[in-house]
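re: ur question from yesterday

yeah so i grabbed the chain u mentioned. its 227 aa long if i counted rite. heres the sequnce exactly as i have it in my notes:
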Amino acid sequence: MSAVRSLLLFCTFLAVPAAQAQDAEQSASPPGLPTIGKWMLTAQGVPSDWLGEIYQGRHLREPINVLIVDATAANAAQAKARLIAAAAHAGYAIRLGHSAGYQGLIAGELYAQLPQGWDDAFSNEVFEISNNHGRIFGPHQFENGFLFTAAFSREVVDPFRWPGHRFGSFKQARDDFTERMSRGTTYKADSAVDLDNAITDNPELTTGDHDGRAMVLRTGSDPITPP
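ran it thru and got these structure tokens back, copy pasting raw so excuse formatting
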């Protein structure tokens, strides 16, 4: 075997574990679900940083913290329509005043955010006051239906401070959205899965109060599905 060929094989051997390690940092494989990107991504495909917010001296990274499975939608369009209607019914209407253009990774595919307006998000209040808001990605069709991922966060609004809109919590927004959906729609909280996307010991990055878990909502037929 030539020295060049030996070197190429050695480099390949090193590259495979490195690629696997990088993939493990970016994606998770929950049981019974496709691989899921751990982070909400910007339009450039990099993990979102909550518009550059510095939280407790570190840059924020925005985790995927909600998963939604529609087991009975006839197609992707219906899955989207009934989820949007259910979110509004639960108090998370599409509201303006938020950054947009984000993406989510499911099974190696990038999905643009819902809602699709240039400054829209699902939110429980108008942007001028403290609110929980989020973006939803998908759906991705798999053997058990249609899967969406989502990133929800709480912003605290104080017009007497700068910046007036500050990060408050990932966990509070996640739990409020899943509780309202479970209480008021046919999307029911089913479980929580560990996505291993809590950053706690990095000197430069943090995920705030996120615990690394995504809440899972599942639905069958939905009585408020639009025609």
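noticed a couple things. The first strand starts at residue 27 and ends at 28. also The chain has a mean pLDDT of 87.
anyway ttyl
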